[in-house]
């Protein structure tokens, strides 16, 4: 059967709750990503050097805890599910951990710095707990690659929606203060994340070893060449995605109005919100690889256009930004789908499924890239003479901010184009890997049950569930 037209295995409630968790998680991540550097340097009073050092140390910590977390997810099988128990834990702690980050305590510079380290590292660890199981859950909810892509597209649509919601943060901060505004967003995030633990179901019975070792898990990770190739390109894109970080600096220094960051961020995410629902159809039409290549080429061209056009005409700046971001975001919107495909390739060549460590690599690279981008922005700001908390920046600094905002991302998209030249997986091949894995698992179950799989079950999936989506 053509998997494009196969019966659905997941219900509508599951799809909505899955997207809802992504919505809350992405609000939490975006607020941290877009506003934390500004909070530290302009409100808490930490220096650029101290903030950059903290980001680098956090990524060294990630180099240890992210792979360990992924390996634990692969190795541990809890009675209540392989992935959902981790997400239940994260539902409560993730919003609380970010709220603690955005508290400016009274004390000396050293005490403020210690508090920043402790709370940011704690948030970072809790976020790790939430990310790999969330993406891995999609592979356990359905065995249909196109339905899985659709579930993940819900997550990317939710991420775009989260960006729009988060764009209102600075406006609310003006009335509620930093901690008050974060508390409001965290309360909302908790409410939309909570339903997943009650609605989602892990239903795909992949065959797994019960005695797999941590050494084997890491060995299988490094044998998955396409996963490593793709994330080399993704690291380049995310490591130079300066717009979100620089938007507040740009609005405050170049445009002279911090409040305009709301307009800029709204313009940059509305096109993404529009394109996200069409991603599954685009992928069915031309495939993930070609979609990524075309998007990178357009992103490079439009970045050059934006730099030379400038921002003297603010309306024209917003128009070009909206189109540019549309193409810039497409590779970012589908990265989880690439990971899921690479997991099937890894299971094919290794004979073992290691979703946890694969999605943990995704989490690690995402956070590593965020740190690289943060440090890159901070160091370039320093190079161009940026002065913290200054009323007016020099002309050289203003031009430097514009370069960081418009031209630096080109480097990342060139890197992704190079990676795509070596990436050879396609959707048809991946679906064949999935079908083979399910067939092998069903055969093993039949043998253990004396040759009978059970009436009404196909590949371990209850047919009565197939029409509920």
Number of helices: 18
Number of domains: 1
Strand share of the residues? under 5%
Mean pLDDT level: 84
Given as residue ranges, the uncertain stretches (5+ residues, pLDDT < 50) are 451-469
Strand count, sense and closure of the main sheet?
2 strands, antiparallel
Helix content: over 70%
Structure in words:
It is built from 18 helices and two strands. It is mainly alpha-helical. The chain has a single domain, classed as Up-down Bundle (Growth Hormone, Chain: A). The protein has a two-stranded antiparallel ribbon. Helix 1 packs parallel to helix 5 (145-166). The model is unreliable at 451-469 (pLDDT under 50).
Could you give a quick summary of the protein structure above?
This protein has 18 helices and two strands.
Please render the helix and strand layout as text.
Elements: H1 12-44, H2 48-75, H3 84-101, H4 109-141, H5 145-166, H6 169-193, H7 196-199, H8 214-223, H9 225-239, H10 243-254, H11 261-275, H12 279-309, H13 314-333, H14 335-350, H15 355-383, H16 395-406, H17 409-420, H18 427-448, E1 457-458, E2 461-462
């Amino acid at each position: 059967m053509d998997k494009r037209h196969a019966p659905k295995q997941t219900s509508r409630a599951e799809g909505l709750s899955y997207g809802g968790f992504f919505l809350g998680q992405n609000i939490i991540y975006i607020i941290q990503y877009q506003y934390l550097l500004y909070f530290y340097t302009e409100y808490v009073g930490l220096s650029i050097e101290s903030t950059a050092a903290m980001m680098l140390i956090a990524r060294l910590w990630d180099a240890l805890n992210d792979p360990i977390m992924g390996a634990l997810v692969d190795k541990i099988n809890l009675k209540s599910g392989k992935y959902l128990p981790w997400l239940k834990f994260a539902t409560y702690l993730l919003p609380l951990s970010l709220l603690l980050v955005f508290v400016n305590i009274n004390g000396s510079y050293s005490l403020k710095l210690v508090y920043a380290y402790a709370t940011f590292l704690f948030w970072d660890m809790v976020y790790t707990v939430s990310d790999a199981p969330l993406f891995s859950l999609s592979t356990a909810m359905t065995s249909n690659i196109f339905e899985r892509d659709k579930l993940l597209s819900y997550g990317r649509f939710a991420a775009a929606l989260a960006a729009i919601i988060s764009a209102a943060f600075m406006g609310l901060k003006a009335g509620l203060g930093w901690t008050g505004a974060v508390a409001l967003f965290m309360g909302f995030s908790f409410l939309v994340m909570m339903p997943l633990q009650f609605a989602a179901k892990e239903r795909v019975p992949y065959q797994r070893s019960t005695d797999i070792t941590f050494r084997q898990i890491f060995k299988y990770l490094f044998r998955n060449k396409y996963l490593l190739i793709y994330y080399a390109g993704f690291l380049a894109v995310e490591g130079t995605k300066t717009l979100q970080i620089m938007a507040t600096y740009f609005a405050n220094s170049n445009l002279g109005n911090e409040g305009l960051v709301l307009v800029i961020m709204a313009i940059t995410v509305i096109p993404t919100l529009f394109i996200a629902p069409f991603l599954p159809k685009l992928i069915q039409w031309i495939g993930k690889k070609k979609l990524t290549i075309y998007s990178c080429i357009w992103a490079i061209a439009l970045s050059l256009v934006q730099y030379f056009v400038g921002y003297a005409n603010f309306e024209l700046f917003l128009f070009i930004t909206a189109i540019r971001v549309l193409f810039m975001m497409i590779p970012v919107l589908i990265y989880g789908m690439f990971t899921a495909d690479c997991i099937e390739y890894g299971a094919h060549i290794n004979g073992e499924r290691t979703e946890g460590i694969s999605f943990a690599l995704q989490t690690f690279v995402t956070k590593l890239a965020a740190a690289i981008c943060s440090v890159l922005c901070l160091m370039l700001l320093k190079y161009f003479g940026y002065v913290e908390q200054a009323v007016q920046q020099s002309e050289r600094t203003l031009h430097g901010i514009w370069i960081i905002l418009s031209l630096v991302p080109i480097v990342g998209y060139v890197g992704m184009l190079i990676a795509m030249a070596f990436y050879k997986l396609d959707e048809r091949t991946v679906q064949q890997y999935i079908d083979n894995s399910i067939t092998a698992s069903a055969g093993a179950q039949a043998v253990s049950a004396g040759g009978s799989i059970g009436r009404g079950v196909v590949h371990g999936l209850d047919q009565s569930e197939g029409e509920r989506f």
